[in-house]
Structure formats: C-alpha cells, structure tokens
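Wait, can you check?
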Amino acid sequence: MPFLRRPTLSGTIMVGTILALTTAMVTLTGCEDESNPSLFAPACPRTDIPTGTADRFAYTGKDQDLRNLSGHVQITALSGDCSRGPDGPDKQKMVRTRVGLSFFIERGPAATQDQVTIPYFVAIMQNGKIVDKKTFNDSFTMAPNVSTQTAKTELRLIDLPASENLQENPYTLEVGLQLTHDELDYNRKHPRPSAFRSNSQ
C-alpha cells in the first residue's frame, strides 16, 4: 500500500541504462496489483542519511553564537514506497521510488522573517559512487507567534532500471540537507542524537 499520496512529476529523477558514512537507513516497501499478473513487485533501493546532513543550523553572522542563530532544521522522518515505473529505453522495466521528508523547524533568536527555505538532496549511489544527484528547495511559512513547527516536503519520484532479479536492487538513495562546508563542519564538531524515524510499512 502506498503511504505518500501527493504524486508530482516535478523533480522526477530518470536514470538511464546505468544508472559516506550513514546514521540512518530505511527500507522502502514494494507493492503490486495482485489482480494484474503483468505487474511486478520490485525491490526498493536502500535509503541512507549521510552523517552530519540531518541537521542545519543557520547563523546570521560569522560568530556561531546562539544570539546569531536564525533557525534550525532537522530531518525527522523519511517516507516512501516502490512500484513499477514507466518503461525505459528498449522497453526496459523500471522501478519508480517515491520519497518524502518530514522536518522539525525551529525559529532562532536572530530570525527576521517567517518563511523558511530548506535545501535538500537526493543522490543515487551504485557501487559506492554517485550516479546522479538532484537538489530541491522547499519553502514553508511559520506563523509569527510560533517558534517551532513540523513540515513535509513534496513527493519526489525517482525512476531506476529494474534488476533481472526483481528481489534485488543495486542502488542506494542518499537523502540529506544540502549544507555549506561551514554548516557540515559545524555538525561534525557538534554531533547530535538522531531524531530520525522510518515511516515505511
């Protein structure tokens, strides 16, 4: 059963014939229509959140002091499932993976506006190498009198070639917040407990 219900073709990643460290992993679920034997239930790719990319602390100045913190965003959940996708080149079977993120958003003392834009990425990995990567920017508006809230991204679609053995999938999807070098360095120096949870069924 799918559990993401707002499909959109914007942001679909299509991988052709061919197509580091992690703190969280979720196995997405496959699904099939038993009334139609022509459909297949493909294995889903593994999904990882690379170390240090689940949090983003945004500061207004060079000094990373709490007074200069404009906001904090944390990935709290990753949801998704798999099904048969549109046929690829030469009628190649494809696996369509649907991925969505949930966030915890916290307003900082130095925040000056209610709109928060969250940059994040989905990278397709095979044999430890990045085959494709796409970045997204989703914006959310906080009420003026609210200091924290939760939010969900739009649904993103990723089409991957199906393996000959449909119970295997050679790909891994790495999903995380798109950080600057300074932001990633800050996270590595100030590790936090993971708030991540799986919404897979």
